[in-house]
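To the wet lab folks,

You asked to see what we're planning to order before we commit. Fair enough. Below is the target structure as tokens, and below that is the sequence we designed to fit it. If anything looks off to you, flag it before the synthesis order goes out.
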């Protein structure tokens, strides 16, 4: 149900806000797991996506001449405050929003969990995510083509098996790990601790 997804998304936003409240301003410039972006940049991106409606997304893509990376970069500049506490205040304001770009709602879970880890891991912050949230995000990534940020093509060559959930997806050689590590791996994050390298 839609309401179930939004409850999960809002809970993840709230948890991230709580974690960031204790982070010193100087640490917001730490490089994130999202290549080329700092922790501050990723938080700004999450604010931008929380504010993005279907109409706003389409208009933004037109202004960016259909360049998704350019659109994302503009969103970061727009939503990043002059200092971390300003950006954190903006994140608090969008915590309960239910706006979404033209994508399945499960993509909102991927956004919150993967970018949540982009932020937390470099800062040494751990989170015990609800397994249902991570598994749902993993299943979405597994069926989504690479052109839309997913890993459907990768899972034609690899079978991922979660050691903490009843989940095994794909074909080919098996890669085992927690659902969270598998989600990060198929989402292109390097350095996750599942003991093997995800082929691309």
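Sequence we intend to order:
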């Amino acid at each position: 149900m839609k309401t179930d997804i939004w409850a999960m998304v809002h809970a993840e936003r709230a948890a991230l806000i709580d974690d960031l409240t204790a982070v010193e301003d100087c640490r917001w410039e730490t490089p994130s797991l999202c290549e080329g972006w700092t922790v501050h940049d990723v938080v700004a991106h999450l604010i931008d996506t929380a504010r993005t409606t279907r109409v706003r997304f389409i208009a933004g893509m037109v202004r960016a001449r259909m360049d998704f990376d350019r659109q994302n970069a503009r969103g970061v500049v727009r939503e990043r405050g002059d200092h971390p506490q300003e950006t954190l205040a903006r994140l608090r304001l969008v915590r309960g929003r239910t706006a979404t770009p033209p994508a399945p709602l499960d993509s909102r879970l991927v956004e919150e969990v993967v970018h949540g880890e982009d932020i937390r891991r470099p800062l040494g912050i751990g989170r015990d995510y609800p397994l249902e949230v991570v598994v749902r995000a993993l299943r979405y990534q597994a069926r989504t083509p690479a052109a839309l940020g997913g890993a459907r093509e990768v899972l034609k060559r690899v079978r991922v098996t979660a050691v903490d959930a009843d989940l095994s997806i794909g074909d080919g050689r098996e890669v085992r790990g927690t659902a969270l590590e598998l989600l990060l791996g198929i989402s292109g994050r390097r350095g996750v601790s599942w003991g093997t390298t995800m082929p691309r």
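Structural context that might help your review: Residues 131-186 form one domain. Residues 194-200 have pLDDT under 50 and may be disordered.

Thanks,
Computational group
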